[in-house]
Write a structure and sequence with these properties.
With 577 residues, this protein is α/β, with parallel strands linked by helices. It folds into three domains: 48-155 and 196-356, no CATH class; 158-194, no CATH class; 382-533, 3-Layer(bba) Sandwich (Glucose Oxidase, domain 1). 35% of the residues lie in helices and 12% in strands. It has 21 helices and 14 strands. It has helices at 15-18, 23-34, 39-42, 64-77, 103-116, 131-142, 168-178, 184-194, 206-217, 232-251, 255-258, 261-273, 279-291, 297-306, 321-326, 329-336, 353-356, 417-423, 460-463, 524-533, 544-552, and strands at residues 47-52, 81-86, 121-126, 146-150, 157-159, 162-164, 382-386, 389-395, 406-414, 436-439, 471-474, 486-487, 508-512, 517-520. A six-stranded mixed sheet has the order 12-11-10-9-13-14. The chain has a four-stranded parallel sheet with strand order 2-1-3-4, with helices on both faces. Helix 4 crosses helix 10 and helix 5 packs parallel to helix 6 (131-142). The longest helix is centred in the middle third of the chain and has 20 residues, at 232-251. The two termini are 34 Å apart. 55% of the residues are buried.
Length: 577
């Protein structure tokens, strides 16, 4: 950072609000005194916004009130002025139809909260799936110094003395219940041990994937992403975030100084090595777009081919995030794949990622696997293309049954999710284990918001026959805690007339994961005939945020961000009159 000019008190953003000898600044200083602060508390000091996504309906963040106090303590210690500002909390569990519908709303709120207030730097408090990309997207667009504070995974779940993981165990035991092998009493016992503490999902779902990605990008303190939420180290990390952000303001270290193309390569590499959620691709593409460059799906596949999966964590592996932390955490994993990283990338610590991981150790080689004994020689997510997905789609091979990774079968098409729910368990549904389940109208516009419907439920009659996986294809996403042979993010989506809208029951669909291929065995002439008869669905919204979303959202391969938030000139600072 030596080539950058250090900030002075007079060049702080907040000085424009507090410093001048005029009526407006008089009002601002008076209100600061209303808070119980004296001029000695704020004069010449950076104002740090603590953007807190706490909510009673976001249990992943139920410890954030306490963590915000730790952040404030660190800010005061370093000579800053903490101001806590609540922003929208995106609860993956409770928000319907999908928290993804509101990721961009959180990003817009984050950007504007930082812009309109006298804030010099920000600590971004998130963790639950969409809060990480939403907060980071907004902070990138505003581009004031910012550090991400990951909320941390919850402690391991427990069912009858056995560890259970978020999502993974729920899907597993629900299948057994539908097959008649798991009682209602057992189901209630599973509920009791499923979510034992504060924190986000403790499997390698979207939450743990995205906080790990944030660390790989350089936006967190080193090692921050792996600390379990209830651990005392998490509180200490929160205080250190407060101290560090004050230094970042004086150094004028901003997101665009950190988020280079090389940093995104690091993030993709780490996503592949941890067997991360397929959702990470959509979010990383959106984050890159906010910085100002395109991140093509091909880059994910290029790096996937070079990166072994070495995190033995559910849903692809057998351990959980508490075990990962105790085994050495993300710092240990980064050190093990250090030869695959761009080690010179700067991070919020002011040091390079290479410097951050010096001395990192691994304590359990069964959790973080040796390079010569990976779970897979290629990364956790593959990108497929073909006439069914000309703009690409994704699959997580490690979560699929190997027999299905090369498969051809007849399609059974569901026109939307209500159609799926009403027919999937019908006695007259002509379905076999070789069938390919296809869900339409589940993408960014069709869902709306690209819900996590991509792990289509298996028909009960097949579950009772012992079937536990089938090929499933949709323009939806799926939970990062899910598993199965699920082809996701098919682009373009059916609601805009993508080829998936033209699939009919009985069509043969070929999947060849190793060849990165998905093909609909229907002639071009027949597809042209179907396309001519296809009608676009009626808009789902005629007002409000939903209408804005439908009109401005991009497709999955473009990050599902709003068109008007990509690139363009920097929004000017607000006038203070």
């Amino acid at each position: 950072m030596s080539n950058k000019t250090k900030k002075t008190a007079e060049t702080l953003r907040s000085y424009r609000w507090m410093g001048p000898d005029d009526l407006r600044a008089f009002g601002h200083r008076a209100r600061m005194k209303q808070l119980g602060l004296s001029p000695k508390d704020w004069e010449g000091k950076p104002v740090i916004g603590i953007l807190n996504t706490w909510s009673d309906l976001n249990t992943c963040h139920m410890h954030f009130r306490e963590r915000a106090e730790s952040v404030k303590q660190g800010i005061w210690q370093a000579g800053g002025v903490p101001v806590e500002v609540p922003v929208m909390s995106l609860s993956e569990t409770f928000m319907k139809p999908s928290a993804m519908l509101y990721r961009n709303l959180l990003a817009m709120e984050t950007e504007e909260v930082l812009r309109c207030h006298p804030i010099d730097g920000a600590v971004l408090m998130g963790g639950c799936d969409k809060t990480t990309p939403g907060l980071l997207m907004g902070a990138i667009s505003m581009n004031v110094p910012a550090i991400y504070l990951p909320g941390g995974p919850m402690l391991n779940g427990n069912y009858n003395g056995q560890p259970i993981g978020s999502g993974v165990s729920g899907w597993k035991y629900w299948a057994e219940r539908c097959a008649g092998n798991f009682s209602e009493c057992q189901w209630r016992q599973l509920e009791d041990g499923y979510a034992p503490s504060a924190g986000h999902c403790m499997s390698m779902g979207t939450a743990s994937t995205m906080t790990s990605v944030a660390e790989a990008l350089g936006m967190t303190l080193s090692g921050a992403a792996s600390i379990p939420a209830p651990h005392s180290a998490h509180s200490r990390m929160a205080s250190e975030c407060g101290r560090r952000i004050v230094e970042m303001v004086w150094d004028d270290l901003k997101p665009t100084d950190i988020l280079t193309p090389a940093a995104f390569d690091n993030a993709i590499t780490v996503d592949m090595a941890i067997g991360g959620s397929t959702n990470a691709i959509v979010h990383l593409v959106a984050l890159a777009g906010r910085v100002g460059f395109k991140l093509p799906l091909e880059r994910f596949d290029e790096l996937s081919r070079l990166t072994p999966v070495i995190a033995n964590i559910a849903p692809s592996g057998k351990y959980l995030m508490e075990d990962f932390y105790n085994a050495g955490g993300l710092r240990g994993l980064l050190a093990r794949i250090g030869h695959l990283l761009n080690r010179d990338c700067i991070t919020v610590t002011g040091k390079t990622i290479g410097e951050n991981i010096e001395g990192a150790q691994i304590w359990n080689d069964d959790v973080i696997l040796p390079l010569d004994k990976p779970m897979s020689k290629a990364g956790g997510t593959y990108v497929l293309r073909g006439n069914l997905a000309p703009d690409g789609c994704v699959i997580k091979p490690g979560a699929a049954e190997k027999r299905l990774l090369k498969h051809t079968g007849p399609a059974i098409v569901f026109k939307n999710y209500p159609d799926l729910k009403s027919r999937i368990n019908s006695a007259d549904l002509d379905v076999t284990a070789d069938s390919v389940l296809v869900l339409q109208s589940a993408g960014p516009i069709g869902g709306p918001g690209m819900p996590e419907w991509g792990m289509l439920p298996l028909p009960n009659k097949l579950l009772k026959q012992g079937v536990r996986d089938m090929v499933r294809i949709s323009d939806a996403r799926m939970s990062g805690t899910s598993y199965g042979t699920c082809v996701l993010h098919v682009a373009p989506e059916s609601a805009v007339g993508g080829p998936i809208a033209l699939v009919q029951t009985g069509d043969l669909i070929e999947l060849d994961v190793e060849a990165r291929k998905i093909h609909l065995h229907v002639s071009e002439a027949e597809l042209a005939r179907r396309r001519a008869n296809w009608k676009a669905p009626e808009p789902q919204f005629d007002r409000g945020y939903g209408q804005l979303f439908s009109q401005q959202i991009t497709q999955a391969n473009e990050g599902c961000d709003f068109k008007f938030l990509h690139g363009g000139r920097t929004t000017p600072e607000p006038a203070i009159y």
